[in-house]
Amino acid sequence: MSQATDSDVREDGVIESVSGPVVTAVDLDARMNDVVYVGHEGLMGEVIEIEGNVTTIQVYEETSGVSPGQPVESTGAPLSVDLGPGMLDTIYDGVQRPLDVLEDKMGSAFLDRGVDSPGIDLEKTWEFTPELEEGDEVSRGDVVGTVPETESIDHKVMVPPDALEEGETAEVVSIESGNFTVEETVAELDTGAEISMRQEWPVRKQRPAAEKYTPTKPLVSGQRILDGLFPIAKGGTAAIPGPFGSGKTVTQQSLAKFADADIVVYIGCGERGNEMTEVIDDFPELPDPQTGNPLMARTCLIANTSNMPVAARESCIYTGITIAEYYRDMGYDVALMADSTSRWAEAMREISSRLEEMPGEEGYPAYLAARLAEFYERAGYYETINGNEGSVTAIGAVSPPGGDFSEPVTQNTLRIVKAFWALDSDLAERRHFPAINWNDSYSLYRDQLDEWFENNVDENWSSTRQWAIDVLDEEDELQEIVQLVGKDALPEDQQLTLEVARYLREAWLQQNALHDVDRYSPPEKTFRILEGIKAFNDEAFEALDAGVPVEEIQDIDAPPRLNRIGTTPDDEVEEFVSEIEDDIAEQLRELY
Amino acid sequence: MKEYKTITEISGPLVFAEVDEPVGYDEIVEIETPSGETKRGQVLETSDGLVSIQVFEGTDGIDRNASVRFIGETLKMPVTEDLLGRVLDGSGRPIDDGPDIVPEERRDIVGAAINPFSREYPEEFIQTGVSAIDGMNTLVRGQKLPIFSSSGLPHNDLALQIARQATVPEEAEGDGEDDSEFAVIFGAMGITQEEANEFMDDFERTGALERSVVFMNLADDPAVERTVTPRLALTTAEYLAFDKDYHVLVILTDMTNYCEALREIGAAREEVPGRRGYPGYMYTDLAQIYERAGRIKGEEGSITQIPILTMPSNDITHPIPDLTGYITEGQIIVDPDLNSQGVKPPVNVLPSLSRLMDDGIGEGLTRGDHGDVSDQLYAAYAEGEDKRDLVNIVGREALSDLDNKYLDFADRFEDEFIEQGFETDRDIDSTLDIGWDLLSMLPKDVLSRIDEDLIDEYYEEEGEAEEVAAD
């Protein structure tokens, strides 16, 4: 949080009333969204309403014991984040205070109040390598040099977007390589602007970009049902709604672990403390499937658990997306996971009701839809202001009350996002994971991504997928009949379709997030399994046409081995599947 | 300390008073009624000149002449190791005629959030001796695992069974590596005297009382007091766990009554209500209770929570179970149908879940086959359940051999695996062995969730042979 370094406190006000996280003050000279320090302990808050002489503030910390008459100080600046090297491999709270630093400063495992800390380490030095020379021309956003931030990521030091006007150029008058702290000047411009590695940016304001493109590259997730049926594009938006226990968090974490993004920003918004601990424990141990380096080297975590102050929960989404945009500006593909946007919406509702605003649907504020849209719109595949291409992919979990998708947060989210991965408690109860319902889910990116998959994986990608969708659709219809009359009453070809659909579900759609091999399925493997099942389908229907009874087809022992492909190491898949295919063909042809 | 006689309004559990000096938010207030009775309350909202106070013991007897004193501090719980063995009321005052409590420290009951960075991930298996839990929804130290139940079901018996039998296997073997003691904190909110007696009798019968602290807010105690009872209990738990190295099991019953008290206060404050009239901040409020479970790096002790709640009309989408389920790490569901079949404990494992299970089981923790067996039992039982719907329509004869096996499996699963009575203490090995016994009814090739090596090791061939013979 950048305000820790600001000392230019503008004007004092006095607290008039306190009600939970909402405090009003009089005589405070502050603008909307300015950060203020409240009470003797200096609790951090943000101005959310100004009416006459009365300013309403949402406070990011517990307000027990704060009383009227205590002072309020305004910093005169909106809620901002510190941007610079050192954000990766770090875990922040909702207002970008590093949790490890807080632990040190507080000397306790419990979060105390009134302790502030800058978002990036101001003491640490980084090795800066210039990419420009004296005399070079720069405009805003241009990269002046790089810093090795982690083993995976080179941090690009850019001219801050607000240092120059749009279209304005300036000449570099001095630039040096060497070790610097984030506040020291590494380059100077002829306009007098001094460039350091650290930028500040107000979280509620989108960082500028040159142009937004239609995304055409997939964010390969390593999850078969997603890559295979409901792919998401780099720069796309997706929602994962589902009742509790259906696996939202596991799905989000799998994406954070295996998606082929350069940077992952993972926001734990109002969720469980132990879940964040799991991420903190796991990520340094797990290798990034793209680079082999520890996952933490590309990850920034933001944890505002459910029992941490509600106002900071409201801001953590903005903190996260601003950090994501900053790395996008360097030309990286960033994936942002927000778990869960419902908690964010509830935080808005809680603050709104304390303000006694007129409620919209189910007590949510009337501006809920606008805020959700604003957030997801900050995702996208962009040409950055320095001419690079970068993307932010936003994937939000939604926790609908009672698993009912008709509630306002789910509905308003669906109006914006283009991929929808509906989690299903029935599937979860039978331990079919990921419990993504293939009948309800959709992805509007499918067609625009087909080309990539056909060029990079297999030319039959889309036709084979369409075959799988048709079989699953038919199964869905047949199941209704089976529920009434039993499977044996169906004609033989339909029984065989059910058998094929079962393999699609068990060998292809199911994926064990906890198995060392199965948890990540490259698109080639995803496709190969599908091909294997289709091979069984084709052979089996041929046998059926030749008069082989369906029971005999079901009895051969090669097809059940399809279920083991998922756990077969990637380099053995080809051999293993070919062998199964051969055995299936051989065993079936023996029958006629 | 200033005294005011400036009450302007009394409404339900709330009192509004004028003040001429600033009063802190959340501070404790003492109100003396004209008859000399002292009631305690808490500042809900404070502004220049006016405060609203929520009175814990009910507002009856308070009139506009009552005097109001502001203590100048927030609500504190006196904590000491001597609390073990004591019975307190819902506000933390002893009601067991024992000696006065000499506190070692007085702690703020709101409790700060544990820094997620300082948490230790829970992965220590707790053996409850209940197959439905150990085998299928394993509890680990530092977890919060609620019991979702309905009125008229034996959830209390289950909670008591867990409290009685819970051990960590290494401890039983006496490794001596971990000498932390076990303590139970029982927080009752709005339960009937009869239920309270049931708990107290069991605690006394088994001698558990001496390692327990009991907080009792009964059905006829003031509803508002219920909002502080769990916080007192958890403040005590934190002290015992993180200052005195105890492994604390906290049982909170009944969270439904707690939430109803929240709603009552919300309504009295004329707040904009959320779903079904419950306040919009109920998620945050419940989280501040449930999230106080856990382990901390470098600390010996731990807090494991088993909150119990009764789902109104057995509806899991009701806001109370719904919000709870989103915060807790799973849920154990007590089912009326199994109960009427006489299954004890009537735990329906299908909708039940333990989120921390995967990290607490397996080789070196429980047994190498645990994860696969549990997955397969789930899948097979779900399959059997499905077939039950079908068999009602078409009859058993119309089903295939395999389908009939699934049906038999589902029946035996309920009668042999789940059913064990409230007194039987099954260790994890016997639980898994029963699981294999049942799985061996099914042909090997449908056991797709289990690793082939494990099938070779545990699958009981003769079991299958018997089945074939029986056909």
From TrEMBL, chain A:
Documented EC number(s): 7.1.2.2
Positions of the ATPase F1/V1/A1 complex alpha/beta subunit nucleotide-binding domain: 222-443
Any one GO molecular-function label of the UniProt entry: proton-transporting ATP synthase activity, rotational mechanism
Localisation: Cell membrane
Alphabetical list of InterPro entries matching this protein: ATP-synt_VA_C (IPR055190), ATP-synth_a_Xtn (IPR031686), ATP_synth_asu-like_sf (IPR023366), ATP_synth_asu_arc (IPR005726), ATPase_a/bsu_AS (IPR020003), ATPase_F1/V1/A1_a/bsu_N (IPR004100), ATPase_F1/V1/A1_a/bsu_N_sf (IPR036121), ATPase_F1/V1/A1_a/bsu_nucl-bd (IPR000194)
Family: Belongs to the ATPase alpha/beta chains family.
Name this protein carries in UniProt: A-type ATP synthase subunit A
Gene: atpA
From TrEMBL, chain B:
Main location: membrane
InterPro entries in UniProt: ATP-synt_VA_C, ATPase_a/bsu_AS, ATPase_F1/V1/A1_a/bsu_N, ATPase_F1/V1/A1_a/bsu_nucl-bd, P-loop_NTPase, V-ATPase_su_B/beta
Keywords: ATP synthesis, Cell membrane, Hydrogen ion transport, Ion transport, Membrane, Transport
Domain ATPase F1/V1/A1 complex alpha/beta subunit N-terminal: 7-72
GO molecular function terms attached to this record: ATP binding; proton-transporting ATP synthase activity, rotational mechanism
Subunit structure: Has multiple subunits with at least A(3), B(3), C, D, E, F, H, I and proteolipid K(x).
PANTHER family according to UniProt: V-TYPE PROTON ATPASE SUBUNIT B
Protein name as annotated: A-type ATP synthase subunit B
